[in-house]
Amino acid sequence: MASSHCNADTGLEIKTRSVEQTLIPLVTQITTLINHKEKPKKSEKTWRAIQRVGQAVSLAVGRFVAVGEAIASENEELKEEMYFACQEARQAGECIAQLTDVGSFDQPESDARATVYTDKTGMIKAARSLLSSVTKVLVLADRVVIKQIINSRSKVLATLEHLEKVSSFQEFVQIFSQFGNEMVEFAHLTGDRQNDLKDEKKKARMAAARAILEKCTMMLLTASKTCLRHPDCESARINKAGVFHRMRLALDQVIEIVTDSRSNGEHKIHPTSIYADINEFKQCLKAKEATNDMELAIIKTRQCMSELRRELQNTAVESAGELLKCYAEHIVLKALKAAGVEGDLEALAEGTSKLSEQKEQLSETSRLLRHVSGSEPLEITCLHAEETFQVIGPQIISAAQTLALHPSSKIAKENLEVFCEAWESQLNDMSILLKEINDVFEGRKGEKRAYLSLPRPGKHSANLKVVKAVKLDAEEQAKIAKLGLELRLHTSDVDAETERWEDQENEILRQAQSMSSMAYSMYLFTRGEGLLKTTQDLFHQAEIFAEEGLRLHSSLHSFSNQLEEDEKSSLLVEAERFPALCQQLQMTCRTPVHGKAATFTKVDTIIQETINMMTVLMKALSLCYKLLKKCKVDQTFMGSPHSWRGNQLQTVANGETLDGKNTDTFGVKSLERHMANMTFLESK
User: What is residue 197's DSSP assignment?
Assistant: First the structure.
């Protein structure tokens, strides 16, 4: 509701959830003021409530505008627009305060001053102006986020060009260290943006681009080292050039998504899928005005189309499943590795032919799955799978050719291993994709995709020594299976709890869903499945899980500030269990271990500590659900359907300051989170 109303007033498109959710409490409070009950005589309690809401709105607007003006002062290109929007918001807030200022409560009823009860037209006009100007401030602030991503990408691209041209190993070490830091910054910015996007297609495209950058970072490292070690090897140069080219395309795609543009000025056109065509045809049939006989014919035709789609889907998924089973042992990859180590060019040629055949089969299967994917985001995932097989196949071949020409080269062998792992990872992703497509057609919500992350500090250090990937062997998987199953049951419990919530955009709910998704990917690791391949992947995932737990703790605190004392106490009892558990998990993740037994013990401890956090999460989530339901039932003049967000306005009236715990008054917190890397007014 907030987004559509404000779009009409401002002509600005709201593209992110944070901007949309920031507006909801403001819309709620203003709606409360405008839609008050018309009573012939108002009690003193009612008068005070009116004045409290008006003052809360005015104070909150003042603080919100202060942040907006701070942003304006640091962004010259937005300065004029932002200051104007801030000024308009401040004036509207002051107008609302005046209309709700009823003065002393013993004034005579004949007092002719304009108030919210006597000048509803004025209130509506002020409300429209406030919503319009606040929306503009938020959208302008969002442009700063986009500028940050563009600037970050420019730095990455410039360093990438330096990396491509270096000719000495020492220079490469120095520049790659800088590149790693820049990629970490870019990963954080794009990850936040991906989670914030409203458009599911854009989210899927962003996820695909970030997945490419993640996998290509390690490929870039080993391919560059191989080229430096064997500078006269043509296949090594081809291999390296392919990685750099793919990274540039992924970086360009990110910018296309955040700016809604195409780098070459043209939109890339993909053939429409059968899924999309059938849907369009069915919609056309629905729209036709028809006689009874024609209507019956249309119904039968639509049924036939649904059956056709179901048959296509069954055939495609069954065919893809069989193909993945055939390639599960990675026989061709093993043969290529062996041929490279032995320098056997004849065996290499045979393996190359077989891998090329596999590449075409998998690409064709990805195209087939796109036609029956069942949703636009899954269509994009299928396209990404097809492109990945088309690109990595030739790169494996060039890496194998380099090794065959230099059989004793450790770096060439390591390079081939990295590309083969990327191929195996894509096969695993495809099996997950198959299940998601099946879930769509069977009407299930589907399992969560494992959490993806980009390069992080420490993973690609300046010495460029690749950490040996450690995976659980069959015996270790058997030992940890029971614990893994227990974790899976906890994620199921949390998922069932989250499905009860009416407001699926609730911040606490979204953070809980994120934690459950990460815990599920950790469960998959205990089975040797999913995107977490090594123990290092697991440790990193657990650390991010702990960070999300701390963010949830902050959100629970904000919610508790809107509750009565006894309810607040009960929630804080559960909330205060998070910090210690999160810090313990972080400490476990960061503690170095050596040796197989110690590594397994660390894995076992992390899974157990994750289970402990999921147990607390379930209790906190269940309690929040009950408290939110109670808030809705007990809703008063100051309440709202989004009471824990809406009542943040009331908190301002109660005297909490910007330096206090509750700083997220109708969007200040969201705005500050958006602008996390900037200096705000209160810090000057």
Answer: B
